[in-house]
Automatic annotation (TrEMBL):
Residues 47-449 form the Amine oxidase domain. InterPro entries: Amino_oxidase (IPR002937), FAD/NAD-bd_sf (IPR036188), Flavin_monoamine_oxidase (IPR050281). Gene3D superfamilies: 3.90.660.10, FAD/NAD(P)-binding domain. It is an enzyme of class 1 (oxidoreductase). Residues 1-24 form the signal peptide. This is Tryptophan 2-monooxygenase. GO terms for molecular function: tryptophan 2-monooxygenase activity. It comes from the Bacteria. Pathway: Plant hormone metabolism; auxin biosynthesis. It catalyses: L-tryptophan + O2 = indole-3-acetamide + CO2 + H2O. The keyword Signal applies. GO terms for biological process: auxin biosynthetic process.
Length: 454
């Protein structure tokens, strides 16, 4: 599922009306609330949990949100310690036309900037500047291959295996390794385990992409207003064997009529929450077979900028997935003197065992090859470690070898009309996105609301 140009389904008409109705249902601050005597425990204060909690509370439910971290937002997590809003998780609204996050962002006071992929400069080894024509030619060929490779895919083989067999000349081409890394691994997952049949699955909203400039956590803060949220509460057990559901958190037990689980797929994979009775086999199978990507982000600042005044800088080293793409923050935050770069998949996981000095050394080796040995070290570094983060164990879901699209729907299935699930990994059309997570929360809230009328 490529979020820049590949399969841009505009979804005109319906999503715009849909967005208006979503906001009407989720942002009515003054609507009178009539208690209905039912309690819902929402596990996780990410955007899916907050969206559900807000809607349920507006419908008269008593809602208790349990969050393991010290603040709301989940993977919408913003670090402002450098004076720059560094989004550790999501950074972009992918496709602003009809996207529910677009309108919600306006309501929340979130500011954004249109990032243009074509505003770029590409460098090869030795600081050799790559021509726009050469880059564009490879990019066009890349998208053509993406549009057809799934027809020759194999249910038991990963994308990398099929691609290398069909296009061996590109396997060791540095520009092609960059395109595969930044245009596919970034958006999906490890190429050797990415499904060669399902890598392009999922819908996309049309329009341009916008990067958030004042912090994606603005949405979480907005949605959390007026909710009963208990922070630093790690859930370890959910017992839904009786009429009331019991949730154990920090050695305390809280009971409710319904429980909505919105923890990331990585947490479900890690089995850190005990379910009694055990989850149905089809749900366990889905948890096991859907992949969990890892993307780590690195923000570096300097006293002065030394790089080209373009939106994106690309570098094509021999090693794939390694600090090969740089976002120039100066283009939307003048005088920030900052670059953000990325590591993907296995190399992303490898960085988590590296010291700050080692990370800086690897990044600077690339920048000095691009701009000369006199380039100074950064004054500050911020970084993420999503794979070893016990609140996520990864970044977002993807279609791995063994994944079937029904697995996303299996994850969304309620159990005994008491146990419900939300999160980006439960949204078959919009998995791995913020808008998918948001929509899943509203979807599950509607399921619970409908039970009172049945």
């Amino acid at each position: 599922m490529h979020r820049r140009q590949f399969i841009q389904n505009t979804l005109t008409g319906l999503p715009i009306l849909w967005t208006s109705s979503l906001l009407a249902s989720s942002c009515q601050q003054d609507e009178a609330i009539s208690p209905n005597g039912k309690t819902v425990i929402v596990i996780g204060a990410g955007i899916s949990g907050l969206a559900a909690a807000k809607k349920l509370q507006e419908k008269g439910f008593t809602v208790i949100v349990l969050e393991a971290q010290e603040k709301v937002g989940g993977r919408l997590r913003t670090n402002r310690s450098t004076g720059i809003a560094f989004d550790e998780g999501a950074s972009w609204i992918h496709g602003i036309t009809g996207n529910p996050i677009t309108a919600l962002a306006q309501q929340a006071g979130m500011t954004t900037f249109h990032t243009r992929d074509e505003n770029r400069k590409s460098y090869d080894l030795g600081g050799t500047s790559r021509t726009t024509a050469a880059y564009d030619k490879a990019e066009d060929a890349f998208y053509e291959i993406l549009g057809s490779l799934m027809k020759r895919g194999n249910a038991t083989q990963g994308f990398e295996t099929v691609f290398n067999r069909l296009y061996p000349a590109y396997a060791n081409d540095r520009l092609w390794k960059f395109l595969l890394s930044t245009y596919l691994t970034f958006d999906c997952g490890d190429l050797d385990t990415l499904s060669s049949l399902l890598y392009d699955e999922g819908e996309e909203f049309g329009g341009v992409d916008h990067i958030v400039t004042n912090g994606y956590d603005t949405l979480a803060t907005y949605l959390a207003k007026g909710l009963s949220i208990q922070l630093n509460q790690r859930v370890t057990k959910i017992d839904y064997s009786a009429k009331k559901v019991s949730v154990t958190h920090n050695s305390t037990v809280t009971s409710g009529d319904y429980v909505l689980v919105t923890v990331p797929l990585g947490v479900l994979k890690a089995n850190t929450i005990q379910f009694t009775p055990a989850l149905p086999a089809q749900k366990q199978n889905a948890i096991q077979n859907i992949g969990m990507n890892c993307v780590n982000k690195f923000l570096l600042t300097w006293n002065t900028a030394f790089w080209d005044n373009v939106q994106y800088l690309s570098y094509t080293p021999e090693i794939r997935d390694k600090f090969n793409y740089f976002l120039n923050l100066n283009t939307f935050r003048p005088a920030a003197n900052s670059l953000m770069t990325f590591a993907y998949a296995r190399y992303a996981r490898q960085t988590e065992s590296m010291t700050d000095a080692q990370v800086v050394g690897e990044i600077m080796a690339h920048l000095r090859d691009m701009y000369g040995t006199g380039v100074p070290n950064p004054t500050q570094l911020l970084r993420t470690r999503w794979q070893t983060n016990s609140n996520s164990f990864g970044s977002y879901s993807y279609t791995a070898v063994g994944t079937e699209m029904r697995h996303f729907e299996d994850l969304a299935e309620a159990v005994n009309d008491r146990l419900f699930f939300a999160g980006e990994h439960t949204e078959v059309d919009y998995f791995s996105t913020v808008h998918g997570a948001y929509l899943s929360g509203l979807r599950e809230a509607d399921k619970i609301i409908d039970l009172l009328g049945s």
